[in-house]
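Notebook, student rotation project (T.W.).
Task set for the rotation: take a protein with a known small-molecule partner, predict the structure of the complex, and write up what can be learned from the model alone. Partner molecule chosen: pyridoxal-5'-phosphate. Sequence and SMILES entered below by T.W., checked by me.
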Amino acid sequence: MTEPLIYDLSVPGRKGAVLPEPDVPHYDLPAELLRDSLPLPEVSQIDVTRHFTRLSQMNMAIDTNLYPLGSCTMKYNPRINEDVARLAGFANLHPLQDAATVQGAMYLMYQLQSFLAEIAGFAAVSLQPAAGAHGELTGILIMRAYHRDRGDGKRTKMLIPDSAHGTNPASSAMAGLQVVQLPSDARGNVDLAALRAHLDDTVCGLMITNPNTLGMFEEHIEEVAKLVHDAGGLLYGDGANMNALLGIAKPGEIGFDVMHYNLHKTFSTPHGGGGPGSGPVAVAERLKDFLPGPIVRVQPGSELDDGENGLPLYEWFQPAKSIGRMRAFAGNFGMLARAYAYIRIHGEAGLRAVSQNAVLNANYVQARIKHIYPIPQGDRHCMHEFVAQGRFEDAPGVRALDISKRLMDYHFHPPTNYFPLIVPEALMIEPTETESKQTLDQFVDALLAIAAEAKDSPGIVKDAPHTAPLRRLDEVRAARELVLCCTFEPAAPVEG
Ligand SMILES: *Cc1c(COP(=O)(O)O)cnc(C)c1O
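Predicted structure of the complex:
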């Protein structure tokens, strides 16, 4: 039975809300601002509630199922963080309020800047960028500004390994740099010979993800850093996936000059459809002056001032050679409040446990499936994720996409498919630290069951999903011809 669409329930004049009598004088809006043509359904509150609840249940979410989407770190976000972000003293602030009236929020930002700098071993942090890719663009603009400031204007190339996240070359190109791709070696590390061959005085830097998107720790990262620095370049770290390293290794101490974090991955802010992101950027001492502002600092002199609360005063400041603003106001503040709460609740030992468990869980799943699913780097321990292949010699017709669709029938969100590009039929699996052994075992059992089905009854796998509200979609057409709203009229069939 198909459920009624909200538009079918529309009755002229039906309302879902009762507005109070206005306590200000009545005023007619200018007629030219009003439209009669908007085909909005007129329905009651319960109709609206059911409509949206139904839509939410048609989706797979971290709150309903394991969501092992590699590289995205879809982990559980403790609800206490939501309470913190909604505290009236934070949520009702106006971004143009005078600094003297928002000292609590500035304290939180100052502390978060310090925590993030400490966690990854850097000198300073800007909380402005609104996402990982935005943090990349920020970091690259900082690198470019640093070279230019030294009168070194011909450094226009960014070296990027072929395992990189797609945002890395995109951000580099957006910053006006020429992207040079480096191959990976058989163990999943960046190919050192290729790196050496490309390093010269036109290189702005190397942009590298560690652990990389194969889930492998770069075994020669210190040598890589030295080579890049000896050539006058800078080392950019894509720190979107810091949940492999918390409390274990500090990129700033390994030799990275600049790095972004994804608060909406590592530090528990919900992401995807769940809200805006946050991609703070951290830098080494020599890049501090180029950070985008405003940054929060202790007002010089006020450290000694034992004020009413025994706290110093905080002020906004713009670093001396700042690349400028990257975002309006103070960034996505709600995300900062969530990350702050997450870090404070865990503390040093707790954050280390986060990474230890993230790595343990990924290795557990890898170890349990690697005799069935080919894993190119399966002889190595992985970090927080690993990349298997969704293909079997004895089931040639079945592909990674089929396996992913079939997983939905077992009530698991599919892993990342066909990325990284260098692994054919890639299934990139990141279980995260928030899953129990029972859940991981159920997930592994499903993967093994699907592998058996692929051989014995491949049709079931190729036709999956069988239980989802929609079956296989034409994903290319869905992306190219987006339909974002329903209309009263049934949509005319699209030609071709
Ligand atoms: C998610 C991710 C990014 C991009 O972050 P967004 O917030 O989606 O822009 C960059 N690099 C890696 C490795 C990632 O996993």
